[in-house]
């Protein structure tokens, strides 16, 4: 970290050179997540790199997610630090969360302690109550989108599809039956 801090003079905020990619965390069809570090602050960050198609420009879902995350400020919502656009990519810079709930459960094959379950559930419900008060539905709640810090803080992440139901495995029955009149019940299912 000292190496990066010594080189921070003259590095502008909001520039691709402000962050160093340390390791690839996961990859999707047009998005890659990296663990990174800020050359400005020395903080670990998560870098969500979205590949841009020349003809299509910035995807609507990326614009939607960025606008929501700029609006949503809560202890149980992942924090968006920065947005960087180049000709080829759009990068969202998030606070770094150490694992998602699916990984956390995998690290505890003997099961989670009831105190942890209650703490995670409380934090999840606090985050949901906040976004529902803002008239926003997450629509893609699943263990992979519930992020956990090294301090045990649970935060909602991945608001890319917060306007449509996406992961069928976690869909409530009424969505399968064709309803389009969604309410906050959708996120509770």
From TrEMBL:
Residues 19-189 form the Protein kinase domain. The gene is Cdk15. It comes from Balaeniceps rex. This is CDK15 kinase. One of its GO terms (cellular component) is cytosol. Pfam families: Pkinase (PF00069). GO terms for molecular function: ATP binding; cyclin binding; cyclin-dependent protein serine/threonine kinase activity. Coiled coil: none annotated. InterPro entries: CDK (IPR050108), Kinase-like_dom_sf (IPR011009), Prot_kinase_dom (IPR000719), Ser/Thr_kinase_AS (IPR008271). Keywords: ATP-binding, Kinase, Nucleotide-binding, Serine/threonine-protein kinase, Transferase. Belongs to the protein kinase superfamily. CMGC Ser/Thr protein kinase family. CDC2/CDKX subfamily.
């Amino acid at each position: 970290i000292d190496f990066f801090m010594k080189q921070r003079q003259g590095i502008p905020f909001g520039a691709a050179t402000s962050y160093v990619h340390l390791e690839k965390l996961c990859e999707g069809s047009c998005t890659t997540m990296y663990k990174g570090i800020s050359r400005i602050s020395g903080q670990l960050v998560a870098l969500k790199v979205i590949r841009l198609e020349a003809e299509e420009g910035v995807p609507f879902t990326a614009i939607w997610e960025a606008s929501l995350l700029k609006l949503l400020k809560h202890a149980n919502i992942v924090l968006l630090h920065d947005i960087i656009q180049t000709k080829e990519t759009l990068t969202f810079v998030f606070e770094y969360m150490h694992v998602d709930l699916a990984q956390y459960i995998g690290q505890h094959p003997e099961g989670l302690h009831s105190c942890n379950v209650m703490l995670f559930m409380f934090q999840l419900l606090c985050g949901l109550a906040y976004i529902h008060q803002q008239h926003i539905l997450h629509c893609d709640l699943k263990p992979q989108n519930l992020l956990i810090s090294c301090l045990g803080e649970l935060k909602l992440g991945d608001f890319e599809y917060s306007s449509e139901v996406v992961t069928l495995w976690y869909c409530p029955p009424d969505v399968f039956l064709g309803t389009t009149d969604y309410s906050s019940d959708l996120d509770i299912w």
